[in-house]
Design brief:
two-stranded antiparallel sheet; Rossmann fold; alpha/beta
Length: 196
């Protein structure tokens, strides 16, 4: 039996993929059909930042994961006051990601994968219409966090999979933030290839 645990935010949950429930669910169904010795647990939670992931990291210990896939960062890059009051500073983001990697390595998993951070439609998420506390997202900030994530992964010798180029912004018109089925399908294909 091999266990894959997915940890992350609403992108990992599969928000807005109304067809098949997101890339993680697609991966789960794939293995249910082709190899029932591989189990996928989706532990994504809407709105999570790296801080929340660290707070609930113990969830995965009891599942004895062989592979951990992270998709987190977009909420870390957001702010509460149009650029001020960042949810997570770049310095803290680096510390949190490094800690997530170190905790994963202590579990002696075979592979750690981080998915790159998605992109948004700036005009629709400043502020984000569904946020009661006026959360602001910005591609300029997201790109800084994504670039830092990539550097941390390379430094710590874990897998980083770029995702920004997989995004068709036409799919984002629903809320300007969450991608639709096409994005999740492409992520699923990319991860499946990586796991081979």
């Amino acid at each position: 039996m091999a266990v894959i645990c997915v940890l992350g935010d609403s992108f990992a949950v599969g928000a807005s993929d109304y067809k098949k429930g997101g890339w993680a669910d697609r991966l789960k169904v794939h293995f249910q059909k082709t190899n029932d010795e591989i189990v996928v647990y989706n532990l994504g939670v809407h709105g999570d930042t790296t801080k929340e992931l660290l707070g609930r990291f113990n969830e995965i210990k009891t599942r004895n994961p062989d592979i951990i896939i992270f998709q987190v960062g977009i909420n870390d890059s957001s702010s509460r006051n149009n650029g001020k009051n960042l949810r997570t500073t770049l310095e803290q983001f680096e510390k949190n990601i490094t800690k997530l990697i170190n905790l994963s390595k202590k579990l002696k998993v075979k592979q750690i994968i981080f998915l790159g951070i998605g992109r948004v439609i700036d005009s629709m998420v400043q502020p984000y219409q569904y946020s009661p506390n006026k959360t602001y997202f910005s591609n300029a900030r997201i790109e800084k966090y994504d670039s830092l994530l990539q550097k941390i992964c390379y430094k710590n010798k874990v897998t980083y999979l770029e995702t920004a180029t997989l995004l068709d912004k036409k799919e984002l018109t629903d809320d300007g933030l969450h991608p639709g089925p096409k994005y999740h399908k492409e992520i699923y294909k990319k991860i499946k290839q990586e796991l081979k």
